[in-house]
Specification:
Layout: H1 12-16, H2 22-25, H3 32-40, H4 52-65, H5 73-79, H6 84-91, H7 101-108, H8 112-142, H9 145-148, H10 159-172, H11 182-192
């Protein structure tokens, strides 16, 4: 019987990061994250190759392996919209040549005024994206067979409709209507302007680098 070959001891520090337990098992114990990836594969929208969810999911890996998961996503969204020529001056520092790009981004977002602008810009960009998705979903539903199919209007109010009615009540200060069916709730929400989140766009910040 061949003897178990343990990993080169010079790699022990590296293998320790992967929960290596070669003394007991003679093998590398998979990371919990990796095991979860394996067992969940095919069950998520991001597993559809070349889909938008798939592209967004794997793009996130670039930040994970480079230690960038602590970056504020809204601030980063705004920062990435800044022209490179304007951003270069903000990214330069005494040790900028030794910094990784993620480290430079983190340092730039520590500048209060720049961070505030990036958060406002990121909020505005994300609102525009979500508002477009929301409007498209409404149009798709109104043109779908489900919308014209008999019976859906008589069903009980859905959880999402309850939420939107509560938001309309909270924002407009109106008394909550007594609605019994999904159709009545749909008409009420539509008459009020739909999801309050998309009634008014957040202000877009003025570019600080000039036109």
């Amino acid at each position: 019987m061949a003897a178990i070959k343990y990993p080169d001891p010079r790699l022990r520090d590296l293998l320790a990061r992967f929960d290596e337990d070669s003394e007991q098992h003679g093998e590398i114990v998979p990371l919990e994250d990796l095991k979860r990836e394996i067992w969940q594969y095919g069950k998520r929208r991001c597993d559809v190759e070349a889909s938008r969810d798939n592209l967004k999911y794997y793009l996130g890996f670039a930040f994970e392996v480079n230690g960038g998961l602590d970056l504020d996503s809204l601030a980063l969204t705004g920062l990435l919209s800044v022209p490179w020529a304007a951003l270069q001056g903000r990214l330069q520092g005494p040790n900028s040549r030794q910094e990784t790009f993620v480290e430079a981004i983190r340092r730039a977002l520590e500048v209060p005024n720049l961070r505030d602008w990036c958060l406002a810009q990121g909020t505005w960009l994300q609102w525009r994206r979500l508002e477009g998705i929301y409007r498209q979903e409404i149009d798709d539903f109104r043109q779908s067979d489900a919308f014209h199919r008999k019976g859906w209007r008589s069903k009980i109010i859905s959880r999402s409709q309850h939420y939107l009615i509560g938001e309309i009540h909270r924002i407009l200060g109106k008394s909550k209507p007594s609605l019994a069916t999904r159709g009545e709730a749909y008409d009420y929400i539509a008459a009020a302007g739909g999801n309050p989140r998309f009634w008014q766009a957040p202000p877009a910040p003025e570019p600080w680098w000039g036109s």
